[in-house]
Amino acid sequence: MNCLRINQIYLYLEGELSPAENKSIEEHLSSCLICKKAVKERRLLLQASRSLPLWNTPPDFTQQVMTRIFPEKVSLRSLLTVMAAGSSLIFLTFLTYLLISVQNLADSLISLGQTLLNLVRNLSILFVKLYKLASLLVKIILQFSEFLLKGFASLTTILSPELQIILITFTLILSAFILFRVKKTLLKGENHEK
Predict the structure, then answer these.
(1) Residues 10 and 39 sit within 8 Å (Cβ to Cβ)
(2) Burial class (CB in 10 A: 0-12, 13-18, 19+), 88
(3) pTM listed for this prediction
(4) Which of 33, 53, 91, 100 has the fewest CB within 10 Å, making it most exposed?
(5) Phi/psi of residue 144, each to 5°?
(6) Which pLDDT score is estimated for 122?
(7) Chain-wide mean pLDDT for the chain?
(8) For residue 101, what are the contacts with CB-CB under 8 A and spacing of at least 6?
(9) Could you report how far apart the first and last alpha carbons of the chain are, in Å?
(10) How far is Cα 192 from Cα 194, in angstroms, rounded to an integer?
(11) CA–CA separation, 54 and 66 (whole Å)
């Protein structure tokens, strides 16, 4: 018999094996010192674990754990307090800037408004360009896939099924190779930048 596995040892110690299996294990234990030592250690562990007192969880144990995992929601009052403090800090910073720069309040507000307007204008242009680029890419991908499907459909009428399988396999391998090379090249570029 081969040496005992851990689950066999525990089943033996807990008396969950058949008499024939018990006899086989006992015969093995009489000749194998390693398994005999393992059984002795596991028996001590089981006895120690059974002698421990039962642990009673407190009634609010689940609530305490959940509170630590998911802290209580922030109240509206504390959220408003934080927002008011942040707004006050921004306002005081702006006033300090005005005092230090000795600028007129109206001129500073006009300058701030123009800056915000330029930011919104530039961001809107950027989003429009990104949208156009994304829609153009989708259109190109759809046209390319339609072209590939038409080409594949025309090839299926010409080629035999065996040749089609070979062609599809070759295409998949070539695509995987190209993707692997592109990934390797990109990663190579990242490693050089670091």
Answers:
(1) no
(2) exposed
(3) 0.33
(4) 53
(5) -65, -45
(6) 93
(7) 84
(8) 108
(9) 57
(10) 5
(11) 23
Q: What is the Cα 148 distance to its own chain's centre?
A: 34
Considering only CA atoms, which of 115, 112, 87 is closest in space to residue 98? Answer: 112
pLDDT tens per residue, range 23-73: 998 888 899 889 999 999 989 888 888 888 877 888 888 888 887 777 667
Contact status, residue 12 vs residue 39, Cβ threshold 8 Å: yes
User: Would you say how long the chain is, in residues?
Assistant: 194
The backbone torsions φ and ψ at residue 159, rounded to the nearest 5 degrees and listed phi first, read -90, 155
And the tokens for 178? 């190209």
For residue 191, pLDDT beyond 60:
no
The structure tokens listed for 166 are: 């070979």
Contacts of 135 (CB under 8 A, 6+ apart): none
| Model pLDDT, residue 114 | 92
Q: What single-letter amino acid sits at 143? A: Q
